Amino acid sequence: MGKTYPRIDGRLRDFILAQPLFFTATAPLDADGTVNLSPKGLTGSVAVLDELTVAYLDFAGSNAETVAHLRENGRITLMWCAFSGPPNIVRVHGRGEPVFRDDPRWAELIAHFPDIDHSLHGLRAIILVRAELIRDTCGYAVPLMSYQQDRDLHARRFAREDDASLDAYFAGKDHVATSIDGLPGLPLPLPPTPVVAPTAR
Predict the structure, then answer these.
(1) Which of 7, 8, 88, 191 could cross-link to 102 by cystine, CB 3.0-4.6 Å?
(2) Which H or E run contains 170?
(3) What CATH number was assigned to the domain covering residues 3-171?
């Protein structure tokens, strides 16, 4: 039986942070618009900031549907599945926003991700999600699968890029500056990557 929770803490928080993969779902307001569902991985790229706030890193890619939908209406659902151990599915329904490099909150937010070298991945934004509904369900039909390791292909592809070459890469893609449905996506050119002092660990 599914259960609703007032906050993300304890077992729920531990479960979210332990999963190597999660999914994001967004949609435009237009009833005929394109619904988007994206897998997200890379260890250390998601953080639970407080009992109602989750954030994850938005890395370089060939589209920006999530960013475009959030800029238009903010609706988002995040989902984590247990592919090992006891069956479980956790969904966080809420409102999200993309935080770009020139946002005054950037330095504070990026400090929540100390365990991933985001400079290797063409970091575009931090997606900030405020939970409005937190639920879990049984997940009995989710298959058991073994996690081996993160792929290194993304880092190998984008580690060689700087701000200028990333801008050129994004400008050459059809659905980065605008979504499939023509909504404003990633604002280009991107603000320069901020120099953030390392935090003590």
Answers:
(1) 191
(2) helix 163-171
(3) 2.30.110.10
